[in-house]
Amino acid sequence: MGSLLSPSPLALVPFVSVAQMMTLVGRVGLDTLLKSLADQIEADFRRWPVFDKMPRVPIHSRDGVIEVMPTSDGSYYSLKYVNGHPANLARGYQTVTAFGLFARVDTGYPLLLSEMTLLTALRTAATSALAARYLASPSAKTMAIIGNGAQCEFQAVAFREIVGVETIHLFDVNPDATAKAMRNLAEVGIDARAFATREEAVARADIITTCTADKRNATILTDNLVGSGQHINAIGGDCPGKTELHRDVLLRAKIFTEFTPQSRIEGEIQQLDDDYPVTELWRLISGDAPGRETERDITVFDSVGFAIEDFAALRVIHDLVGRHPDLAEPLDLIADPDDPRDLYGMLKRALGTAASNGATD
Amino acid sequence: MGSLLSPSPLALVPFVSVAQMMTLVGRVGLDTLLKSLADQIEADFRRWPVFDKMPRVPIHSRDGVIEVMPTSDGSYYSLKYVNGHPANLARGYQTVTAFGLFARVDTGYPLLLSEMTLLTALRTAATSALAARYLASPSAKTMAIIGNGAQCEFQAVAFREIVGVETIHLFDVNPDATAKAMRNLAEVGIDARAFATREEAVARADIITTCTADKRNATILTDNLVGSGQHINAIGGDCPGKTELHRDVLLRAKIFTEFTPQSRIEGEIQQLDDDYPVTELWRLISGDAPGRETERDITVFDSVGFAIEDFAALRVIHDLVGRHPDLAEPLDLIADPDDPRDLYGMLKRALGTAASNGATD
Fold it and tell me: I need a labelling partner for B45 at 20 to 30 A (CA). Which of A196, A358, B115, B344 fits?
C-alpha cells in the first residue's frame, strides 16, 4: 500500500546538490568544465535572437537583493534564484547563493534542479574568459585581479584555460583574502603574485579583473590607473548603486555588455547616459560587430551576469547528469496523479494509505 | 574525510516533497489546513501595502506558459515556479505543476523549498472561499462548479469549511470528470449533484465557480445564465487570451480582483477597458471598500492567483514544518564554506577528499 505514496518516474526531478556539484567538478575536471561552459555560452550567445530576454527581476531590501533570472530558447526554460547580500560576509554567510531550474517548454515539467552557488561562480568565470578571448590583446599573458574573494580563483583558472593567461597579480584591501588566493592558486600551479597597492597590481597587466563585493559606488579603478591596450573585465559592479570603475575610464574605453537593458540598470554604464553607445558581446561573437580594433584600444566588458549564461550552464550540467546519473538524486517535486484530472483523488488515496498504515503500526 | 563533502547545517534547506505534502495534509486535516491557509491569506491581504508586488513574470510558448511569481513583505521572500499547459492533459501530464521557495530577506538564504502543485490547488481554493465569504450572499448554501477537473473538489471542500456551502452542483463537458468529482465528494460527505447542462447546474446556485482549463476565450457563462444575487468565482480565466465569462456578465457585475495590474493582463477583465472600475479584494478585507451592497448585486471574483497567496501558503507550510520536522528532508542546496570568501577552497578540499577516497577504494 505504501507505493501509493511513491511518486511515478514522471514526478521525479533530478537534483544536483552542492556535494554532487563538487563531485561533478572533480570527475570532469575544473579546467575541462570551465571550457565546456565557455563553449556552450559562446554557442548560445551565437543564437541570441531566439531567446526570451528580460532584465532580471529583483526585490531589493536594506540588506541586499534577491533576484530571479528566467529565459527560454523555445525548447528549454531556465530559471535562477540568486541573492546578493554584501553584509552576509561579516555574518559568516555567502554573499551570493543561488540555485536553478532547467525545464522543458512543451510540458513545463522541470528536467533538473541544481545548486548554482558554485555553478554561478564557474559560469561567471567562463563568461569573463570568453569575453576576454574576443576582447583582450591576443598577446595577453598577465591579469590583475582586484578583489580576492569567492570569485577570484575561478577567474584565474578560467583565464589560464581559455585565454592563455600565465601570470596573476593579486590585490585586495584585506590581505587575508589575497593570502587565501595565493595559497589556492599556488596549488594549481598558477604563477600568482601579491601586491601591496592596486597601482602596482594593475601597472603591467594586460587584463584587469575587478571583482569586489561592496554594495556602493566604489572607485576600484580610476582613470590614471588604466593604460592603453588594457582589457578590463568588470564583474563586481552588478546592481543599481554598485559600480567599480570611475566614469572617466568608461569614457575612454570601448564598452561591451551582455544584455544592454539590464546593464543600463545594473552595470558600470548606469553612470552613463541611457543612449551611450555600447556593443552587446553576442554581436561580436556572431561577427556582427567589431571588438578591439587597435593594440591601444581600452576595452571594458561590463559584466553583470545574464540569464542565458545560466541557461547554458544548466544545459551543460543537465547533459553531464545524463552521462553520470549518480551525480543527481531524484526529487519528488511534481505531483503526478494517474489521472491528471484527479489531483484530489491522488491526495485522498495517499491519505487513505497513511491512515491504514497508521492503523497497522 | 568524507565529512568534508557533508554540508554544514546552514547549507541545508528543508524540502517538502509531494509525498510529504500529502502526509502533512493527512496529519493536519484537509479542512483545517484550508482554514489555516484562508486565515493566513486574509491576514496577509490586510497588510497588502507592505508587500513588493508585480505581475507574474511569464514566458509564453505555443504549448503553454511558464511563470515565476515573486513577492516579499520585507522580512520574508517567496517565489513560485508554475506552468500552465492545457495540452498536457491529453499527454497524461498535469496541466499545472508548481514548486516554491520561502526565504529570509535579510540574508537571502532559503528557508524552505516545497512542492506547490498540491499547495497551489489548496491555496487557490482557500482564496476563492475567502473571497466568497466577503462577497457572496450571507445565506449562500449552494454552489455550482463548472469544470470538474483537478481544482473542483478542493473548491467544494473549502467552500463547505469556510463559507458554509452545503450543496454542490456539478457540470463538465466531459461526463467522466463529473463522475470522478461525484465519487470523491461523496466520500467526504458533500452533497453533490451532477447536471447534464450548465444551465441547470447554475440555475438555483447562490455561487457559481468556473474552473475550466481551455487556453482560449471561452464563454462558460453567458449573460442569460446569471441571475441577480449570484456570486461568480471565476478562476479558470487566468492568462492572456483565456477567459470564461461573457463580457456582458462583467458589465452587470461588481468586479473584485487580486492585484489589478496583473488581472488586467490575465483575468476576465482583459475583455474590458483598462480603466474599467474594479475593486481589489484586500481593500474589502481591510474595510476600505464596500463589497456586496444589496441581495440583488451580482459579484465577480476575477481570480487569477497572486504571489501573496503563495507567500501566505508557504508561510503556513514553513510553520507546520517547524512543528513537524519529519515532514521535510534537508536538501544540500546552498554552498556554505567555512570561510565565505573561500568558495574555491571548499571545492578544492572536496576534490581532494574525492580524489583520496577514489585512491583508497
Answer: B115
DSSP A52: B
Write out the three cell numbers for A26.
572533480
Residue B50 contacts A, CB cutoff 8 Å: no
Q: How far apart are CA A166 and CA A162, in angstroms?
A: 11
Sign of the CA dihedral running B45, B49, B51, B54:
positive
Residues of A in contact with B117 (CB under 8 A): 334-335, 343
H-helix segments, A188-222: 198-203
HEC string of B52-104 equals ECCCCEEEECCCCEEEEEEEECCCEEEEEEEEECCCHHHHCCCCEEEEEEEEE
The residue ranges of chain B whose pLDDT is under 50 are 1-4, 355-361
B337:A94 CB<8 A: yes
For residue A43 the three cell numbers come to: 554557442
- The question of whether A238 is a catalytic residue gets the answer yes
Give the distance from residue A340's alpha carbon to the nearest chain B alpha carbon, in angstroms. 5
Name B348's Cβ contacts closer than 8 Å, sequence gap at least 6: A184, A187
Given a contact cutoff of 8 angstroms between Cβ atoms, the answer to whether B146 and B221 are in contact is yes
- Indicate if the alpha-carbon torsion angle B166, B169, B174, B178 is positive or negative: positive
- C-alpha to C-alpha distance for A308 and A299, rounded to whole angstroms: 22
What does the alpha-carbon distance between residue A256 and residue A239 come to, in Å, rounded to a whole number?
17
CB distance B301 to B132 below 8 Å: yes
Please list every residue in chain A whose beta carbon sits closer than 8 Å to the beta carbon of residue B95: 340
Q: How confident is the model at residue A125 (pLDDT cuts 50, 70, 90)?
A: very high
Q: What crossing angle do the helices spanning B18-28 and A343-360 adopt, rounded to 10°?
A: 70
By Cβ distance, the residue of B72, B97, B152 closest to A109 is B97
User: Taking residues A112-140, what's their average pLDDT?
Assistant: 97
Identify the burial level of B205 via C-beta atoms within 10 angstroms of its C-beta, where 0-12 means exposed, 13-18 middle and 19 or more buried: buried
User: Could you identify the residue written with the cell 440583488?
Assistant: B296
- Alpha-carbon distance values, A283 to A44, A287, A345, B323 (Å): 12, 6, 53, 54
Cβ A66–B72 below 8 Å, yes or no? yes
A 330-359 near B (Cβ less than 8 A): 331-337, 339-348, 350-351, 354-355
pLDDT given for residue A110 in this prediction: 95
What is the predicted ipTM?
0.89
Query: Minimum mean pLDDT among A124-128, A155-159, A308-312, B235-239: which range?
Result: B235-239
Spatial neighbors of A63 by CB under 8 A, at least 6 apart, are: A85, A87, B105, B106, B107, B108
In sequence order, which residues have a C-beta less than 8 Å from that of residue B354 and are 6 or more positions away?
A22, A23, A26, A27, B5
Catalytic residues of B: 238
Q: Other CB atoms closer than 10 Å to residue A141's CB: what's the count?
A: 15
Under 8 Å between Cβ of A168 and A141: no
